[in-house]
Design a protein that fits this description.
Blueprint lengths: L1 E2 L3 H16 L5 H7 L4 H17 L8 H11 L4 H18 E2 L1 H26 L2
Parallel strand pairs: 1-2
The chain binds protoporphyrin IX containing FE.
Amino acid sequence: MKKLETRQDIEDLVNRFYDKVQNDETIGFFFNDVAKVDWSHHLPKMYSFWETLLFGQISYKGNPMAIHFPINAQVPMEKSHFEHWVKLWTATVEENFTGEMADLAIYKASNIAKLMGHKMEVARKIR
Ligand code: HEM
């Protein structure tokens, strides 16, 4: 199987992941119905986000935590949603790529998802 090593690989991975997400029964509605995501805007941001995280190519400048709070305020983003997000991400990585960067993509996503899930839970408690 292919190694995850180029910007094009990241674009392919991210596209395939959000194809799954959009059609997913558990978390798809956050994107389709709650945030009503403009995919032509969102996907390039996600390419840059992952390029920055994995290749150290600083093309993403943003605050990934902050963008999720207003969504969480509308519909609680539960730990189980984040676990499901990670399950879909891990499956998409493993279906398409192998090697160190592929492992790192899974590892980093899991850590961020855990932290994000925790922050969303705390935000709901102090509201
Ligand atoms: C159940 C879990 C999640 C849901 C439902 C979710 C939902 C969303 C939605 C709807 C947006 C788009 C907001 C908009 O443009 O209107 C977004 C943006 C984003 N998400 Fe998530 N997300 C989840 C988990 C994660 C995780 C685990 C990560 C990181 C590993 C992540 C990283 C990002 C980033 C980088 C953006 C773009 C932020 C920006 O605009 O600068 N998300 N998310």
